[in-house]
Amino acid sequence: MIDQKIRVLIVDDSILFRETLAKLLSYGNTIEIVGKAGDAFEARDKILELHPDVMTLDVEMPKMNGIHFLKKLIPQYPIPTVICSSAPIMALDALDAGAVDYVKKPVTKTPDDMQEFANELKNKIITASQAKVRNIIRPSTRLPSIANLARGRKINDNVVIAMGTSTGGTDALQVVLKDMPAHCPPIIIVQHMPPVFTKMFAERLNKICTIEIKEAENGDRLKNGCALLAPGDFQMELKKDSQGYYVKVYRGEKVSGHCPSVNVLFDSVANVAGKHAIGVIMTGMGSDGATGLLKMRNAGAYTIGQNKETCVVYGMPMVAHNIGACTVQAPLEKISEVICKKLSMCD
Fold first, then answer.
1. Domain 144-343 falls in which CATH fold?
2. CATH class assigned to 6-129
3. Is 166 designated active site?
4. Quick one: residue 5, left, alpha or beta (phi over 0 = left, psi -120 to 50 = alpha)?
5. How far is residue 305 from each of residues 67, 234, 320, measured CA to CA in Å?
6. What is the pLDDT of residues 34-72, one digit of tens each?
7. What are the domain boundaries of the chain?
8. Pick the catalytic residue: 58, 171, 267, 288?
9. 287 in catalytic set
10. Which residue out of 53, 93, 101, 192 is catalytically annotated?
11. pTM of the model
12. Which of 166, 261, 268, 287 is catalytic?
């Protein structure tokens, strides 16, 4: 429940876009536009003067682009920022630089397109206003102690690791997956993210992690040392046949407000893998994944929730914890260690 209006600063080099967006976002009792800026330097001055609760930021701007601006700004003034961009790669760079979330700009600027864009952005702003902006610890190399926990043992081919994240999840997944050893059991992931972004995000993770990471395709087989990320606008379920585990990827309705949905994935893991699964729910607004994680735990799976202190938004893990879905809660930087310790007991 929002008790008072969220004070927003709009940063975009197009004056027409700024004015149109300000008018659309101001409709209602939720958001107050306290300022507008056309470049990073003007935005810096407005932030110091107005102290907004949330900033919307274009990444392609003159003088200084949004990514460099965030890198300089966030360490000194950790303001929750929602990226508005038509460039997926730059939006992902901005998330790495400290932005909380992103919305893709409409290709055409018709009234209907702009209204749909503004509605989505408004929801992201509300979420961002409750977010905790922090510098995530990103180890440059895997911790040997973590890798050694699972080394030298026979991998149980029945084990599946399922992860679900939303707001703040791009950072969270990097932290956890970079620490997973090359021979770990297969991982299947839902991160709330639109089409195109999921493929680029998977490719980016694949470059920095020891394990292989790819955007899932229908029928992909699960294998040790590989993680599959659900594509945007598609649901993903775990399946099993005589040859082992595989994923079903299909166009479906939104579940729990999302496509892909963490609940859809977790429900299928509970049904197919049962006690041979490990479930992880991390930072994100709302409750998607909570009931699915409870179903996994009731089926005998080991379930982990990210703790409040390290979440950008303590929503999904909080609901999961409150309904008894989490076997344990852990700080973000310890989740991979908790997984590997559990695996060392799964022979």
1. Rossmann fold (3.40.50)
2. alpha beta
3. yes
4. beta
5. 30, 24, 7
6. 999 999 999 999 999 999 999 999 998 888 999 999 999
7. 6-129, 144-343
8. 288
9. no
10. 192
11. 0.87
12. 166
